[in-house]
């Protein structure tokens, strides 16, 4: 079921697409027979008209079959957000603002190899245009 807030914010067609996919994104990879999972929320960040940045509260969870060292970072940045040593799972969260799409990566700290990554697209939506359009339709009738 699609909430009225989502429908009003992103429009009905996009809301329908979001309803078809799980709200949480889980990516899985197999490296040398090992299973990893990465869960990133929110799946999409909506920037309203007049706003330059999209504000979100980012929540990231990862799990592995065995204990391992991993680091978390944004793609294109050198500094890691958080690293875990000899852990099977981890949780990281923060509030941030982004102007463009953001990719979160789970890395092997020794080789710098990307184990998993997840894209958080930033979409823009102008609510005034939708409301104005609806008003014009009703005024014709």
Please explain how this structure is put together:
- The chain is α+β, with helices and mostly antiparallel strands and 141 residues long.
- The protein has one domain: Immunoglobulin-like, CATH 2.60.40.
- 21% of the residues lie in helices and 52% in strands.
- It contains three helices and eight strands.
- Strands 1, 2, 4, 5, 6 and 7 form a six-stranded antiparallel sheet that branches. A two-stranded parallel ribbon has the order 3-8.
- α1 packs across α2.
- The longest helix is centred in the last third of the chain and has 14 residues.
- The radius of gyration is 19 Å and the shape is elongated.
What's the short version?
This protein has 141 residues and is α+β, with helices and mostly antiparallel strands. The protein contains three helices and eight strands.
Which key features would you list for this structure?
Immunoglobulin-like, 141 residues, disordered N terminus, 3 helices, alpha+beta, 21% helix
Helix-and-strand structural type: alpha+beta
Low-confidence parts lasting 5 or more residues at pLDDT below 50? 1-7, 19-31
Order of helices and strands: HHEEEEEEEEH
Provide mean pLDDT, rounded.
Answer: 79
What percent of residues are in strands? over 45%
Number of strands: 8
Shape: elongated
CATH architecture: Sandwich
Topology:
Layout: H1 4-10, H2 12-20, E1 25-31, E2 34-41, E3 45-48, E4 54-74, E5 82-98, E6 102-107, E7 114-120, E8 122-125, H3 127-140
Parallel strand pairs: 3-8
Antiparallel strand pairs: 1-2, 2-4, 4-5, 4-6, 6-7
